[in-house]
Amino acid sequence: MTDRRLDGRSVLALVTNYGVEQDELLVPLRELRKDGVDVTVAAVSTDPVQTLQGGKEPGESVDPDASYEALGSAPHDLLFIPGGTLNADQLRLETAAVGTVKAFATSGRPVAAICHGPWVLVEADVLRGKTLTSYPSLRTDITNAGAKAWVDEPVVVDADGGYPLITSRTPKDLEDFVAAIRERLAQV
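and the corresponding structure tokens:
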């Protein structure tokens, strides 16, 4: 963990308006904001984001800061993609979201994804040569997308291949995941 505040750093969180796993969005969001990070939550629309707990039960609602289309060109230091099966499955169908992932990767800016979040990385075709983790059911998709390796570890940081990639498996890995994001933001 970094022992300095992260004031002046900015993170863009990409979600859909329904189905994001509550803790995978809210824990990093709250922890990073406590550290002074400006976190923008962008969704398909500016309607409230309905989170789910365990992929089934309704969780907290979150008001997004912007829609994908209204993001504009404001630069962010890191892209954060939380999971949730429904969220991730719909996110990879959103052209603007996939384009944002590609823009971050090609510009060399870090991307952090947890659980099912890497599905949008598969769709964006930015995993070639990368080592990462995810929810176990994504292993074949990740391998077929050209990843170097899928590993079963709490957090994986791969700085090779043009952009830094931080990945984690499930909500039980959130402490390690947030620590890795903090570490990367401290280097910006």
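(Above: one complete record from the training split.) Residues 22-34 form the longest helix (13 residues).
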